[in-house]
Amino acid sequence: MAPNREHTLILIKPDAVEQDLHLTVLARLEHTVEGSRYVASRILQFNPDLCREHYSHLTEKPFYKNIETYMCSGHIWAAVLEGPHGMIPAIREDIGATDPTAAAKGTIRNTYGTKIDLGNGEYFTRNVVHASESQQEAYEEIRRLFLKEEIQNSAPEFAEKLWPATE
Ligand code: IDP
Ligand code: MG
To answer: Which ligand is nearest to the CA of 64?
Structure first.
């Protein structure tokens, strides 16, 4: 693997798959940073256990149940994007802030996302897409959702890094 290559997990969330936006969003993110390419992708479905693992930092929040309902409501496209150093923050900038109405104009979440105010200062959002916040988070997420066999043909050294062969 060339030095300094970064990897991130992209999830096209159920609202975007339902609206047939998955190819549009995946194609856009492949071009956010020159020199990026997908090394794996597949459709999957979250269940409550998987959702709790993926969003373990949010399970104590009052709005967690809403996230679970949303993320388990339909198909998700999962993709592993490989790119040059700096790709992870650049992708995060292109998707925009968590709250689509707070996300910068022209970002993916601001363009396609929705927000429902719950009245008490809290909100519910369908915000189209997930992208890992750090390299470490990406490694954990990719290991949870993909098998080594799904990645090793297109990115053998990366697959070996995530799932080292045991003697
Ligand atoms: P991120 O998706 O921008 O990385 P996280 O804080 O990791 O944001 O939250 C994961 C997901 O949980 C968000 O994309 C959104 O769907 C949901 N979420 C996070 N914070 C809130 C909130 O304050 N209200 C409603 N939903 C939230
Ligand atoms: Mg996050």
So the answer is: 1
CATH code of 5-162, in short, is 3.30.70.141
Annotation marks residue 130 as catalytic = yes
Measure 58 CA to ligand 2 centroid, in angstroms: 9
Q: Return the pLDDT at 163.
A: 97
**Which ligand is the nearest neighbour of the Cα of 91?**
1
Please identify, by atom number, the ligand 1 atom nearest to the C-alpha of residue 70: 16
Segments making up each domain of the chain, as ranges: 5-162
For the CA atoms of 121, 74, 14, 66, the dihedral, rounded to the nearest 10 degrees, stands at: 10
pTM, whole model, 2 decimals?
Answer: 0.97
Q: DSSP letters along 113-133, please? A: -EEEE-SSS-EEEE-SEEE-S
